[in-house]
Batch of 3 targets.
Target 1
Amino acid sequence: MSHLDQDDRDFDAYLQNDHALSDLYRELPQEHPSAELDRRVLEHVGETKTGSRLRRWTPYFGIAATALLAIGLARLMPPAQQVLPTASEPGRSESAQAPAPAPPAPQTAAPAPRTQEHNETDSVPKALQHLNAKAPASTYRADPDRAAVGSMQALESIGQSSASGQLFNRQDTSSETPDELARIRALLASNKTAEARTALLQWRDSHPHRSVPPDLRALLETPIIPAKPAG
Amino acid sequence: MQAGKPGYRSTPVCLYLSRPMESDDETLMLRYRDGDASAFETLYARHKGPVYRYLLRNCAQVEVAEELFQETWAGIVKARKRYKPTARFRTFLFTMAHHRLVDHYRRRRPEHEPHDPERAADERQAPDRQLDRWEQAQALRQAIAGLPAEQREAFLLKEEAGLGLEEIAAVTGVGSETAKSRLRYAFSKLKRLLGGES
């Protein structure tokens, strides 16, 4: 019984790290992993770390790529969709909302809107300015008749040195000719034949390269009957 | 208790707690889980010796021990994402090493039966032979190698890993009474081999 008690006491002492067996065990040679083994283990950790770092950055790479793509697409979009209206520039909001890239310009106020548009062109990135310039140019080239005559007044107000300005003015001034002819037709309709004829002659003199419309040609052939003095 | 001895007992608990600047294993493992590789290096430097000796003295083959050692740390690396400090890191680490050891035993049966430690001790305890301290240590190593695998593992987990009975039970996946029984058998045999030294 006492032998069992002694064993229990020894074992309890051993569990408390207070036994000669533990001391003797600590005197055993201390084997350690070799440097090569250390290197292999730590290398494995390094490889795993690199892999996890790549995985960690993958979403950020995706976001950056998406952002670059969005910016690239935004730069290629028409300027009308890029320029947002601001409170300090009320005039721009209307033009910015215009959907068509080459809408017909207002016929009565030729110089001012073009100048404003020119300023808008300055506000967009340079990469987009060629898109702005191409639309009106192609529009005007499609109408060679109107390009033949220019209004000096409009040229002066915009700037004669600009070739693109001439193209803009051709559209604006040529739009006056139908009005003038319409006024002549209105005079004719109201039996003011003499006034109509005089106006048509003036129109012909001021538009030497244009032919008189067929419906008005008879007016030029009409003899002018002087009005009889009253009484 | 002597300083500079193997295993974890060279750092008494009171000294360990009195060094607040030194991160504990669990904090280091959490830091490693969150991507701090230097925390792993600290853990590795702290535990590599005990883990290596635990494996080497269990399987008694350097090549196998090195392979299992590498697999153990690779397992730690792989399992870092699911690590939770519910137990001591040391328990977690030696559980990993134990599993590698069990896998090894399953893959390969021992080529030879472990020699009878009592018979070996009788041979060494011949009256005409006076064992000095170094020889006693060598005899102990051979006696440990001759223990049944389960008792040897319990003994090494106690001596190398510094685990208590409950932790030995958790690592080896048995009840605490079983773990205590294994450890007690190992202790009794080794004590007898060493001539009843106490």
Target 2
Amino acid sequence: MFQSERFWGGLRGVINVLLVIYMLAPLVVTLVISFSSALYLTFPPPGFSLQWYEKMFSNPTWTRALWTSLKILVPAAFIATICGTAAALALNRMTSRWALVIRGVLMAPLIIPVIITAAAIFGVFRIWGLYGTLHGLIIAHVILTLPFVLSTVSANLAVFDRRLEDAAMNCGATPWMTFRRVTLPLISPSVMSGMLFAMVISFDELIVSLFLSTPRVRPVTVQMWSNIKGDTDPTIAAIATVLFMFSLLALLMDGIARRRSGQAPGL
Amino acid sequence: MFLKNRNIWLLAPAVLLIGICFLFPVSWLLQRSVSEPVWGLQNYITIFSKTIYLGVLWNTVAIAGVTTLLCALIGFPVAYSMAHSSPWIRKVLIFSVLIPFWTSILVRSFAWLVILQRGGILNDFLAGIGLIAEPLDLVYNRFGVLLGMVQVLLPFMVFPLFSVITRIDGSYFSAATNLGATPIRAFFRVYLPLCLPGLATGAMLVFIISLGYFITPALLGGRGDIMIAQLIFERIDEFGDWPLASALAIVLLVGTGLLFVLVNALIKIRGRGI
């Protein structure tokens, strides 16, 4: 029986189906419930309605939280992209072995558990008066997202042909012009994808935000956290869907940017 | 080339940011853990001598360990199936494993709550088809935590395994069975050892990442499933107990750091072909 091709093929089929259910069920349930016409959590929902989205967008608690999240993620992703790309360029050209050490230090916020970063930043930011401020949250999110930009751009620079720059310079281009017209266009897909990564991570970030936010400055994930602990109301499913759509949108944009530049889509 | 002499300035913003807003805060944490209430290791001694803290440390290691084991048990057949399926099915599987990766942990934990709670979808369904009379406790306990964590961490196990399995030559297995080994014996003596590098990398990744987990255990677990990250949060948030929370954070940092160094060393040894 164990030798038979059909048995193994069937078993593989069962494994595949179970896996897909396990990985996707939570997401599908959330999406479906967010469009439920019932007044409480029930599955499958009796009908389709947009009432939870209406509730979400008419409730100032949620709109303010969404707005706060945007006010954090845009500047944070912008700063992280600039600093991360600059660092990636510098490290790519550094020959000393300090480059490895510096890269390790810059990547550290990605490697060490976020709870440590969160506690440390909270402790110090409280002293510096950055606790409960938008600035504090933006800086904290830059720290968390910079490693993603650095690693994405570095991976691109590792396969970048430096002779193209030499060629431009030999033809009389100034260093700035070479950078602007040759280097940047060639690495721009990875810079773009690093920035999208940074945006998604900032939007989804909870732990550091939980420490740094106050009822006045409260991003959407923290608002969700305090609601989930209370009860599971379908409005949260609507918010969850918005969060997911944001990630999906970023993923699609990344795919488009890569396809345009002729690069293989990455993870 | 052109940036050679001035490139150091490009590093300045990132290094300053990480230095001032990350390295300094972490060292501040380290200092608080040994300087309050008086200089010394008393906070660490408390952590390693009081039953409640030891219980949390044990929980952390136990949950991370069982998560790793489950990820390996589930990840292996999944990676195998992925490697041996048609391109189309492979795409579906990769997509399924990666999608949760792109959804926030908060969203996923909420979804599990909706499915698993006492009045949730799964209990309703099981009661509906008459399989259970009383709703089952599927969440706010160890089961819920493990279910949630395995789902999140599975990609870290599946992809290293997948990359190893696709490179294994199927004829080794056939050779073993042709020479008289039972399929089970051939699997354990020939196939599994060949997968070991991927399995080891995946297991270490899953274990290290699970140690610092916070949101999933906090939302899906009960009082008996508190892990170290949650304890750090509660110590600071509810009690303002910085010395102890700092010491806990440093314990977690050193623990994950040591494991990380170990993994790197293992990878290097393997890289030399030993």
Target 3
Amino acid sequence: MHIFEDYFIPEIIDPDTLKTLPPGETGELVFTTITKEAIPVIRYRTRDVSCLKFEPCSCGRTHVRMKRVSGRTDDMLIIRGVNVFPSQIESVLMEIEGTEPHYQMVVERKGNLDILEVQVEVSEKLFSDEVKKLEDLERKIKTEIESVLSVSVNVKLVEPKTIE
Amino acid sequence: MKAKQISVFLENKWGRLAEATKILGDNDINIRALSVADTADYGVLRMIINRPDKAYEVLKNSGFTVTETNVLGIEIPDEPGGLARVLEELKKESLNVEYVYCFLEKGHESAILILRVDNTDKAIKILQSAGIRLIEAKELYLL
């Protein structure tokens, strides 16, 4: 993807040292605006991991290109346009009595939709031999997470120590 | 009167039930009766076992989520209407049955009903006063 260098200065930095990395290196993409007057930003940290390519492009444009974003420097996920931090899910699980915050988030894409599944390990405290109570627990976790994130999730109860 | 039932949380994964039962077998523990409640993602294995405390220990040490629940063992005649009569008594006193499963006693005329209700103590009183035989835990483990 080409970046309009007459409006923005893209740079790749090391997210820990904040030093600019040489061309071609992979790191965090930051932008400085050149023409914005109301809200100018200097080395705005996108938290996106990418790298810049300065070689001429076959399309004929001479502006620098950024590679497809390969990850994030924080652990934020974007689920259907909503920013989701694992810490939000952790705090919900901590509040539900007896839950050890052992969980895993699995994001899958079905059609055009991101599907977030939260797998929660069932500790002995949480376990009931009545399916009705396990289903209540699942529902409770789901409702609480959804009210915090404002995005729908699937909750799956899994055996302890099965999450790597 | 109350018997210990061992329940295990099983993820709906290939071979998980086999693993749980193998652990019991390897430790010379015998399953007297069992039932599995299943949902799309997981199952709950419920068992009456000859040595419940040992079963609890070995399963837990093998990483399973295990719990002990008090259930009732009831002797019912192995004939039409046998189970209905027991349930009728509980219904009269508006006791709710959480789950129930049955097994047949070797060489006997009667069937054994394993019953989990929301109020076990009350159920004992009701059934006893109705003349229904409750089986002692020790007897149940060794049947």
